[in-house]
Amino acid sequence: MSYAIGALITLLLMGAVMITTYFTEAFKVTLVFGVPFLLILSAVYYGFFRKGRAKASNRALA
């Protein structure tokens, strides 16, 4: 259960950093490029690793 608390705290702190970044004029551009990059990176991870893991588990069951 402690791993879930650590992940939640990390999520909250990352959100706080992103919110305060928006109010800092010099770093506002990082949100324009950083958020789409994170979404693309997550999609690539899901496409390459999560689907591959599901295929491997299906082969193990057969």
UniProtKB/TrEMBL annotation:
Name of the protein: Uncharacterized protein
Native source organism of the sequence: Pseudomonas gorinensis
Superkingdom, natural source: Bacteria
